[in-house]
Write a structure and sequence with these properties.
- The complex is a heterotrimer.
- Chain A has nine helices and no strands.
- By secondary structure, chain A is mainly alpha-helical.
- The model of chain A has no long low-confidence stretch (mean pLDDT 94).
- By secondary structure, chain B is an alpha+beta fold.
- Chain B folds into two domains: 108 residues, Roll (Ubiquitin-like (UB roll)), CATH 3.10.20; 129 residues, Alpha-helical ferredoxin (Fumarate Reductase Iron-sulfur Protein, Chain B, domain 2), CATH 1.10.1060.
- Chain B has a five-stranded mixed sheet with strand order 2-1-5-3-4.
- The mean pLDDT of chain B is 96.
- Chain C is of the alpha+beta class.
- Among the domains of chain C are: 134 residues, Succinate dehydrogenase/fumarate reductase flavoprotein, catalytic domain (Flavocytochrome C3, Chain A, domain 1); 129 residues, Fumarate reductase/succinate dehydrogenase flavoprotein-like, C-terminal domain (Methane Monooxygenase Hydroxylase, Chain G, domain 1, Up-down Bundle).
- In chain C, the strands form five sheets. In chain C, strands 5-2-1-9-17 form a five-stranded parallel sheet. Chain C has a five-stranded antiparallel sheet with strand order 11-15-14-12-13. In chain C, strands 16-10-18-19 form a four-stranded antiparallel sheet.
- In chain C, helix 2 packs parallel to helix 11, helix 13 runs antiparallel to helix 14 and helix 14 runs antiparallel to helix 15.
- Classes of the chains: A mainly alpha, B alpha+beta, C alpha+beta.
- At the B-C interface, helix 1, helix 2 and helix 3 of B face helix 2, helix 4, helix 5, helix 10 and helix 11 of C.
């Protein structure tokens, strides 16, 4: 543990923690997205899938126990990811107190890389809303426990809500595009022979996850799902 | 060609600086620094103090020069230090903004001259192989695969100008540190101190007040020796291994 | 004063061993009681400072650059020689020794050169151990190339950046010692005088270039590793900051200056593009392996190169030297280029260059092969000139590059002032009248890593370890001198800029004391230089103040010293009534236009003693004996 703390003290250590927690979070959103696609198989299937998540680990674990274990891991990962990001931002700001009068011409960095921090904050807001909306139902107008399909149907009946989800998923796509590539760099996963696949893989992960997620609200808006 | 220059003038470290505007006539065959020389000759003739800027070899190898030109460290030609930039890359009537490297770790000393000694401090912390004079075995005793030697040379080409820091949105010195650590870490002679080197250099880099790397890649583009960000991945890996795997 | 070279007796192969045995050692426990100052942080300075600190001495190292890594050794391109015989092609210490003495045109000290060849082996070992990424073969062994006309492949190289990589090796060793606290580094600090107390060098006076503060540092011994003086010509391949100040100031305090007229002109540099030119850039000599040098036969030729037919081209080196052709030694290639330009057949807009043409090589080998060999150089050429050498011939012209002369030192590298050591390009010792390619790096590192650290101990044991305090009266007086000089420069408040004076001085030196010299020309220079120096002191304009970073003031101080030194160069060139190596006196040439040595009268080192500015210096002679390399006239026909 001492070593982990020592590592975390350095800027690279913070980045490594962001990358490791990022791997967990990317795994989660990928699983979440695939689960969501069950909506296309009808209300019964997706509601049953939701029940399965709660029943995971049975009979060794009780109802919802494994799900909570997973949630705890995710929450910790998420918190570490956010705190490290905030600390790195602070270090970066302190490292250039006086700005360029004629701002830097960016040549290599991408829109995605430069907006990581803003996009990250936006995603944080979205996650809080999304939990209140779809998990606890606090912000849902007609929330049914276990009625996943119903909850989606009601939520995405609103163009505003669906629109917000679309924007958030675009932000997630950008975040993943830079995050995945950056993760490879930070974890030192590079090899001359395979380096050329890193960018395309980052694009692939970002596009697949973002498209997979937005398929649901778009389908409701377009009437493909009803 | 006629040019309008906006040059950063700052009398000393803790004084407020500002842009001064000068009109100069330049010859397209001049180097950028020769254009500044001619501005300085003119200023001196008018009893004004010349613009202080750093330069020495003017062959792109000593790493002394470094100016942000129109928002680009070392100016518009890729893989070229300021001293080898020539005026033919500009057009008649161009307006040129000339600024020093800006980073909290590189305080301005005067005009375009900054203090880059933190880069030396990073090397002093561990950017070397301990080989006491006289203790070396025969040079051919350890064969080194050609590819490894070439890759080490790619990293060793760093001239320590600090353009990577200037170009980085976080003012991070990762490319500089990674290039030195990789140069030594790629060679068999560099293995005994590899873990310790990574730990010490990174720790000094952070202590010196540079920002953290967030993989924008601007450093690689600004680098006059076109050193690859692949070396950054290598240093990250070394640091991870050194922190987690080290026996003590 | 007599010159005591302190070369040990015995067979030449054993001299260095014998010397190392005879030199007194400093007790390891006592080493930390000694302080040593090293001025300069190039190959010689950095390697010396690091090695001395490793031995346990307390070292202070000074450089005017912002970091020790920027010293001009960094710009050396070609490589470093060593008699390793890794190629099994018949190289040996003896052959390297022989080639170096012969290449130096018999004006170097045999014993020094032999030691240099011996140590060349250790240097490569040391550098590889430090992580210098020398070029390698596929089997992982070190690669070599033949360089500068040598008949064996003994040159080690790291792409075109050998100097950079060797310097980084030494710099890293130095950085380690700085990190350990064994060396105190003073960057951005310029040495402006030497303090001599009771005939011994006891300290230096420096100016902090950022604050302008003038201060003294005392030590038991002083090491000058301050490089060469090619910038006396204003336009040279040296870095802009290179200067003669440290060695000149030491000379004024009693150190003899040896062979100042031995300067080397490098034949393949990019010609000046206008009167704003600030320095010249060297292109590796290897280009002459495939490029053909020519000028038009007609003077006042206006057409572009491709419009000039074969019959209207004069491949003068191939014509004059059928067996060596374009690969004739540096001094010959340089002189012939100057002749071509002086005869009005120069090329380029300013008619100040000769063509180095790759057309035939590209036709024979293909652009790809040429690109592989010289791609980097072609890119650099295009960056600077805007012309693509694949399409149009390169233009080249010689430029001052290296100075073989320097402060006189004995076999132990100590100058004529006890306690003042001089290493690297700053001393005169190993290259005679002409330096072979890839030998400068070798000498700098030999001095710093493997010679000085032994020899300095002998002196230190003799003087004892009583602390040297920098507040003695002598220090104060010299500090005051330095401060006055700075004030004087600022007080002239004339009209002309420092650079305009430096350019004019450089022009005189280039015309009269450059590639070829005449009695009349040198006499003219000796009239012109003092006159211009007087004008400098009455009409120079140094802007700004002395109490902060003032680059104009730094330059002014250096140019002021060049003004005094340039006169000595001309005096030396005028007195040496012969031609040898880089010193070519038009009056002394063979029927074929080659340098004609006069071994009977001039086989000696000319060591000059300072007698006052504008005064005729006193000449001391160290005779040179050639017992192992028989005197012969070189021929490249």
């Amino acid at each position: 543990m001492r070593r982990v703390v020592q590592l975390y003290k350095s800027t690279i250590g913070k980045k490594i923690m962001m990358a490791l927690t990022g791997v967990i979070l990317v795994g989660f959103v990928l699983g979440h997205m695939i689960g969501n696609l069950k909506a296309f198989q009808g209300a019964e299937k997706i509601d049953a899938y939701g029940e399965f998540l709660r029943e995971m680990g049975s009979p060794i674990f009780g109802h919802g126990q494994v799900l909570w274990l997973v949630r705890i891991v995710l929450i910790v990962a998420f918190i570490v990811h956010v705190i490290a990001a905030l600390q790195l931002t602070r270090v970066g700001q302190k490292a250039r107190r006086e700005k360029y009068a004629k701002s830097l011409e960016y040549e290599a960095s991408t829109y995605a890389s430069r907006t990581m921090r803003y996009g990250g904050v936006f995603l944080l807001v979205f996650v809080v809303y999304h939990l209140l909306h779809m998990t606890t139902g606090t912000m849902h107008p007609d929330f049914q426990i276990g009625g996943i399909y119903h909850n989606l149907q009601v939520a995405f009946g609103s163009v505003v809500v669906a629109g917000f989800y679309l924007v958030a998923m675009a932000a997630l796509g950008f975040h993943l595009f830079h995050g995945v590539w950056s993760g490879f760099q930070t974890l030192g996963l590079n090899h001359p022979r395979y380096n050329r696949y890193r960018r395309p893989l980052a694009v692939g992960v970002a596009v697949v996850i973002a498209l997979g997620f937005v398929a649901i609200p778009i389908s409701f808006l377009a009437g493909i799902l009803s | 060609m006629q040019l309008v220059l906006h040059v950063w003038r700052q009398a000393g470290p803790n004084v407020k600086g500002a842009f001064a505007t000068h009109r100069v006539a330049a010859n397209p065959h001049m180097s950028f620094l020769e254009m500044l020389d001619s501005l300085n000759e003119e200023l001196a003739a008018n009893d004004e103090e010349p613009v202080a800027f750093e330069h020495d070899c003017r062959e792109g190898i000593c790493g002394s020069c470094g100016i942000v030109i129109n928002g680009v460290p070392h100016g518009p030609t890729r893989g070229t230090a300021t001293c080898q930039l020539h005026m033919r890359k500009f057009r008649d009537g161009d307006e040129i903004w000339i600024e020093p490297w800006r980073a909290a770790a590189f305080p301005v000393i005067k005009d375009l001259v900054v203090d880059r000694s933190p880069l030396d401090a990073i090397v002093q912390a561990g950017g070397y192989i301990t080989a006491r004079t006289g203790s070396a075995p025969d040079a051919n005793a350890i064969p080194i695969p050609k590819d490894d030697a070439e890759l080490a040379m790619d990293a060793a080409a760093c001239i320590g100008c600090g353009a990577c820091v200037a170009a980085c949105p976080n003012a991070s010195a990762m490319l500089f540190t990674a290039a030195k650590a990789s140069h030594l870490g790629l060679l068999p002679q560099g293995q005994p101190e590899r873990d310790e080197r990574a730990l010490k250099m990174v720790s000094m880099m952070d202590a010196a007040g540079f920002g953290g790397c967030t993989n924008h890649g601007e450093c690689e583009i600004a680098c006059p020796k076109e050193i690859s960000v692949e070396f950054i991945a290598r240093l990250n890996r070394d640091l991870f291994k050194a922190s987690v795997m080290a026996v003590e | 004063m007599t010159l005591e070279s302190r070369v040990p007796s015995g067979p030449i192969q054993e001299k260095w061993d014998r010397q190392r045995f005879e030199l007194k050692l400093v007790n390891p426990a006592n080493k930390r009681k000694y302080e040593i100052i090293v001025v300069g942080s190039g190959l010689a300075g950095a390697s010396a400072a690091a090695s001395l600190a490793e031995l346990g001495y307390r070292v202070k190292c000074f450089c005017f650059q912002d970091s020790p890594r920027r010293a001009h050794s960094i710009a050396a391109q070609g490589g470093i020689n060593a008699a390793k015989n890794y190629q099994n092609d018949g190289d040996s210490i003896w052959r390297l020794f022989y080639d170096t003495v012969k290449g130096g045109d018999y004006r170097s000290r045999e014993a020094n050169v032999y030691r240099l060849a011996q140590i060349s082996l250790n240097i490569i070992d040391q550098c590889v151990a430090q992580g210098v990424p020398f070029a390698r073969e596929y089997g992982g062994q070190l690669a070599n190339r033949s360089f500068g006309g040598a008949q064996v492949s003994r040159t080690f190289y790291a792409r075109g950046q050998t100097g950079q990589q060797l310097l980084l090796g030494a710099y890293q060793a130095l950085a380690r010692q700085i990190g350990l606290g064994a060396v105190t580094m003073f960057p951005r600090t310029e040495m402006l005088d030497v303090v001599v107390v009771d005939g011994h060098a006891r300290g230096i006076v420096v100016r902090d270039l950022v604050s302008g503060a003038i201060s003294s540092h005392g030590a038991h011994a002083i090491v000058l590793a301050t490089g060469g003086y090619s910038n006396a010509y204003f336009l040279s391949t040296n870095a802009k900051g290179c200067n003669v100040t440290a060695t000149w100031r030491a000379h004024r305090r009693g150190a003899l200056f040896a062979n100042p007229c031995f300067t080397q002109i490098h034949p393949t540099c990019i010609p000046a593009s206008g009167d704003y030119q600030s320095k010249l850039t060297l292109m590796s000599e290897s280009l002459r392996n495939d490029g053909r040098i020519w000028v038009p036969t007609a003077t006042e030729e206006q057409r572009s190169a491709d419009a000039i037919s074969e019959g209207e081209r004069d491949y003068y080196l191939e014509r004059l030297y059928p067996s060596f052709g374009n690969l004739t030694p540096r001094d010959i290639a340089s002189r012939r280029a100057k002749e071509a330009v002086d005869s009005g057949r120069g090329v380029g807009e300013l008619k100040n260059g000769v063509y180095l043409d790759f057309r035939d090589a590209i036709q024979r080998l293909g652009a790809d092969v040429i690109g592989e060999r010289y791609g980097n150089l072609f890119d650099m050429y295009e960056r600077i000139t805007g012309e693509n050498p694949y399409d149009v011939p390169m233009r080249i012209f010689p430029a001052p590059h290296y100075t073989m002369g320097g402060l006189w030192v004995d076999y132990n590298l100590m100058s004529s002032v006890p306690g003042l050591y001089v290493i690297g390009e700053a001393n005169f010792s190993d290259h005679g009248a002409n330096r072979l390619g890839a030998s400068a790096l070798m000498q700098g590192l030999a001095d710093g890593y493997f010679i000085l650290p032994y020899t300095i101990g002998d002196y230190l044991t003799r003087i004892g370890s009583a602390p040297v305090t920098a507040n003695a009266q002598a220090f104060g007086a010299i500090e005051e001198d330095v401060a006055q000089r700075t004030k004087k420069l600022l007080a002239v408040e004339g009209k002309r800029t420092v650079d305009s004076f430096h350019r004019e001085l450089g022009r005189i030196m280039w015309d009269e004391c450059g590639m070829s010299r005449t009695k009349e020309g040198l006499a003219r220079a000796l009239q012109a230089i003092p006159a211009l120096r007087d004008e400098f002191w009455s009409d120079v304009r140094v802007t700004g103040r002395g109490e902060n970073l003032n680059q104009t003031l730094e330059k002014a101080g250096r140019v002021a010293d060049f003004f005094e030194f340039a006169e000595l160069m001309c005096v030396d060139a005028l007195h040496r009534d012969e031609s040898c190596g880089g010193h070519f006196r038009e009056e002394y040439q063979t029927d074929e236009g080659e340098a004609l040595r006069n071994d009977d009268d001039f086989a000696y080192v000319a060591a000059w003693n300072f007698t006052g500015v504008g005064e005729q210096p006193e000449l001391l002679k160290e005779p040179l004996a050639f017992e192992h390399v028989p005197l012969s006239q070189r021929s490249y026909k």
